[in-house]
Amino acid sequence: MHQSQLIRSSTFLWALAVAAAFALFVVGLFAFIYWKLDDYLVARSDRMITTRIHFIADLPPARRISAIADHLGQDSRGVQYAGLFDAAGTRLAGNIDHLPRELGLDGAVQGVRLDLFEKPAAHVPVVRAVGRRLDGGDVLVMGRNVDETREISSVVGQALALGLLPAFSLCLLAGAWLSIRAQRRVDEVNQRVQRIVAGELRERLPEGGTDDPFARLAGIVNGMLDEMETMINALAGVGNDIAHDLRTPLTRVRLALERGRTHAATLEDLQEITDKAIAGIDQSLAIVPALLRLTEIENNRRMAGFGEVALDEILREVCDVYEPIAEDKRIALGVVIERNVQVWGDRDLLFEAVANLVDNAVKFTPSGGRVELALEAEDGTALVRVSDTGPGIREQEREAVLRRFYRSDKMRNTPGVGLGLSLVAAIVKLHGFRLIVGPAPGGRIEILAWTGRADKAATCRSRTLRHADADLMG
Question: CA 263, CA 182: separation in Å to the nearest integer?
Answer without folding.
Answer: 77
